[in-house]
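Structure tokens please, single chain.
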Amino acid sequence: MIDEQIEIPTADGRVTTFISRPERGGPFPAVLFYMDAPGIREELRDMARRIASVGYYVMLPNLYYRSGAMELGKLPPEPDAPERKRMYALMESLSIPKIMSDTDALIAHAEKNGADTTKIGCVGYCMSGQYAINAAARYPDRVRAAASIYGVRLLTEAADSPHKVAAKAKGELYFACAEVDHWMPMEQVEPLRRELRDADARAEVEVYPGVQHGFAFPARPVYDKPSAERHWERLFALFRRNLG
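Here you go.
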């Protein structure tokens, strides 16, 4: 495996991006890995490496680069802790248009550096599930597969709400929802499934029973290994079907 961390020019600056890819072979399909709210950390780099190890050019961008933040460090459990308030402020500083602009730059870089950008996969966790789905809608002929893993804000009134833009995507979409998730409560899951069905989107919504938001992250107290491994199986199968 080859790992590198580089600065990629964007419309708003330079986004620090961790890239992992197999050492030999290629070109490998590009996979955009959108981080969750706690930001870039070794836990996410390890997940990026796991995806890359089966034959992908994986890009993990620091979405907080506009604010000059990157690794936020350990977050205390108290919801009112200053560190958590900072994280929430950083999360709110983002928007779908900003991340789609970054996505343009990431794909352009991948295209110039040996990745196969005719077949792109996207995955977003937590705050970034909405970004993965919007990327699939923005690049319907390139993004062949996109996954939202316990994503939030999937069903809003905004024009770029994932349940609305999914109709523009041609790729296969996958939504993994935790049964215990106050960010995306169960009462929103069936409406999401219904809206996607009515939009004739190529989408599956799956509920992971008995687990909490964040269940796939090994360093989280809510980590659930059986469900985490199932999410990997589902993600790899999604990419294998659509990216090769």
